[in-house]
Amino acid sequence: MSTAKQRFTLAAAAATFASLALAATSLTATAQPRTDLVVGMALEPPHLDPTAGAAGAIKEVTYANLFEPLLRVDADGKLIPGLAERWTVSDDGLTYRFTLRPNAKFHDGTAADSADVKFTLDRARAADSVNAQKAYFAPISKIETPDPQTVVVTLSRPDGLFLFHMASGDAAIVAPESAATNKQKPVGTGPFRFDRWVAGDRVVLDRNPDYDGVKPKLDRVTFRFISDPAAQVAALKAGDIDAFTLFSTYEALPEFRNDPKFTVTVGSTEGETILSTNNARKPFDDVRVRRAMAHAIDRKTLIDGVLYGNGVAIGSHFPPHREGYVDLTGLYPYDPAKAKALLAEAGYPNGFDTTLRLPPPPYARRGGELVAAMLAEVGIRAKIEPVEWAAWLEKTFKGKDYDLTMIAHTEPLDIDIYARPDYYFNYKSERFNALNDELNRTQDPAKRNALYGEEQKVLAEDAVNGFLFMLPSVTVQKAGLTGMWVNRPIQANDVTGVSWK
Amino acid sequence: MRRRLPLSLHLGAALTLLLVAMALLSLLWTPYPAEQVRVIARLKPPSAAHWLGTDHFGRDVLSMIMVGARNSLAVGAAAVGLGLLGGVPLGLLAAALGRWGDEVVARLGDLVFAFPAVLTAILLTAVLGAGAVNVVLALALFNAAVLARVTRGAALAVWRRPFVGAALALGRGPLSATLVHVLPNIAGIVVVQATVLFAVAIVNEAALSYLGLGIQPPSPSWGRMLGDAQTYLFTAPLQAVFPGVAIALSVMGLTMLGDGLRDWLDPRHRSSGVM
């Protein structure tokens, strides 16, 4: 009996000691900041090659983390060195000279030199290129590589946005050895390298030990894909996700704001959300009809109803946070009576029937429903037609066979799309095209901003599309995480500067 | 002697009548226009002004449920009606023709059954575009196949009975025999089946609208109300309750009505009763 008791006491003491020791180790463990990160995203990328697809999710995983373009866009939208450590532009704006980082290497160990840059740019502008932004590379006429560290690019015409475009994910530098397999097994030059991809669930990156630039604080980044809004909220609450970017379940934000365990940031994106209008099709070819629609839409109610107030109204195709912005939101105040009068003047006293095609994102599906209700009040009976992305791209974007649709244009500084002759708005304006030509010839920032202002005014006066609001960049993250981007000047989840307190 | 009606028939008929009454009432009156948006009054819990609260655009949930009932019934009635028009004659024809005619109808039925109704509907809406009409067509196709099979089976059993043989021997043609002798004897089975299919059609319509393929906004649909409510499960859980209850009660009512009718009309039951 007594021995058994003694043994028991001994065991208890040992257990106490062990648990104390454990507690001590776990204390030291918590004192050490975490070095891993789990980022939540709504959409899974279809593949991981940013130079071969338009899906934003590809860039949201790879940009700056895995792949590097020649230049990069930082959290504030400024151009900073990427694979090129410095660059110069000739006075006529036609010759660009990039100097690459001397010790840059791809993740497979091969050197990243001027030949890789030439290969990348030639591949992107080739006739059979599958790059989603081929137009970015169209001005290039010649690429020379005088030495392994220097690339000289000559343009056939000035392009004020060339450097900006060379900083996009579409211009990520890839190697000839791995270009063909980047979709499944991406090989870049960035501070993180590809570890694995569990289809339907996550992509895991780990730190690139041979990175020649500033080393990131994190050693492991997991991107998890959760499309269901309720599951997104649940995963955040359960602590499975450290930061959810481009969070669009806006109605759940008050809860996270009131919870000290979380931080909510609301920033800007480049996503001008518009009611795209087929300017070539009756009755939308009449500017009075387009202006009537502008008067019929109450942007404040729309922003309240769709974004729960987390968004800014726009009056033209330009984001308020950029230089050169002109506030035109007051041009067509919400005024259903005025809208009806304009419709009557255009010959539609009883309104008309039309179709509003909506792609899948919630801002479009929900927003479209509200816009249709507002248009109905002035007599424009819009039949709602929900479509999947593939069908939307095929019929609406490429086929230009539509009346109205609702979409966020997320490419940065994309006002030039209104000058493209075969863009899906079917908008043709000599005035706008002249301004855009001048903009392309102009390097001086102040003059450029003035021209941007003129362009915005032309678009607003013509009421080309219904200009609605800027899509917000909402991030819900655990308190203690620092360095996540607040704004989204480019499609990216750049985590190279992220760390735990 | 009067037979007692089954309890399920009472309950089912009551629930179905409630559904129909709500749908008919919505033609004349709803508390608010079902499509009226008022963002400022969104996601309100039930109150005296809004008995079942408001949805994420501030629309009155009760009004939406009422108009939704009408939409559900319309889709169900059209899907079952077209199914009856297509399926019953086909089934009768198969039974009357026998042999290869029978074979053709049976194989066509198998073809339809190879795909679940919802999948067929998704396929059809993907090709022809989303909307109530295409949903009705898809569900009607499925219903026609089911009804053809049920009709054929029941009709074959009647054809083997002596009085049909006697009628034929007396010079009645197959068409006349089908109309005079076969159809009245299988009517009960077909009605029961149609009632059950009605319930299935309501569920399927809700499922398709939930996926965004069925009835299109602004017209309310129970399925889409459920779909919209999904994102509010944490913030406003009541949003999902009312359309969910509406679907459940309607389907329960129609299924019980079908069960009750079956018990009541069952020929075995009948032979032990008055006949």
UniProtKB/TrEMBL annotation, chain A:
Q: Which residues form a coiled coil?
A: none
State what protein this is by name: Peptide/nickel transport system substrate-binding protein
Which UniProt keywords are given for this protein, alphabetically ordered?
Signal
Please list the residue ranges annotated as the Solute-binding protein family domain: 78-409
List the GO terms this entry assigns under cellular component, sorted alphabetically. ATP-binding cassette (ABC) transporter complex; outer membrane-bounded periplasmic space
List GO BP terms, alphabetically: peptide transport
User: What InterPro entries does its record include?
Assistant: Peptide/Ni-bd (IPR030678), SBP_5 (IPR039424), SBP_5_dom (IPR000914)
Q: Where is the signal peptide?
A: 1-23
| Localization terms from the record | Periplasm
Transcription regulation keyword on record: no
Q: What does the record give under GO molecular function? A: peptide transmembrane transporter activity
Q: Which family does it belong to?
A: Belongs to the bacterial solute-binding protein 5 family.
TrEMBL record, chain B:
One cellular component term (GO) for this entry is: plasma membrane
Instruction: List this protein's GO terms for biological process.
Output: transmembrane transport
Per the record, the domain of life is: Bacteria
Keyword Cytoplasm recorded = no
Q: Where is the ABC transmembrane type-1 domain?
A: 69-258
Which InterPro entries would you find in this protein's record? BP-dependent_transpt_permease, MetI-like, MetI-like_sf
| Signal sequence range | none
Alphabetical UniProt keywords: Cell membrane, Membrane, Transmembrane, Transmembrane helix, Transport
So where does this one cross the membrane? Answer: 7-29, 73-97, 104-126, 132-151, 189-211, 232-257
Per UniProt, what is the membrane topology?
A: Multi-pass membrane protein
Instruction: State the family it belongs to.
Output: Belongs to the binding-protein-dependent transport system permease family.
Name by which UniProt lists this protein: Peptide/nickel transport system permease protein
